[in-house]
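Researcher: Next entry in the queue.
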Amino acid sequence: MKVKELLEKVDETIASLKIAIVANQQRAMETPYTSLEFTQRAIELQEDLDDLLKAREFLLSLDSETDAEEHFSKEELEKFLKLLELLRSVDAHFY
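Model: Structure for this entry, 95 residues:
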């Protein structure tokens, strides 16, 4: 996998997280009974987003045409891709 392909996956995940954060922030305003839960979830998602933005900055510093395996071990790359998949599957409408 090329670094630019990995960067595309990170960008897709960032977009999904931003949508989920906004959805949770809006849901927090709906009722006082669940506002704390949605606010906490939005904060957790924001922390994940901040971490992804740092990872994105690092990936941007690499040559986009090189293989990601040159910079990361196979195990690290698999774990990171799995994490991206989990975060990308966050559907805002389920909250």
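Model: Helices lie at 3-28, 35-61, 74-88.
Researcher: Noted, moving on.
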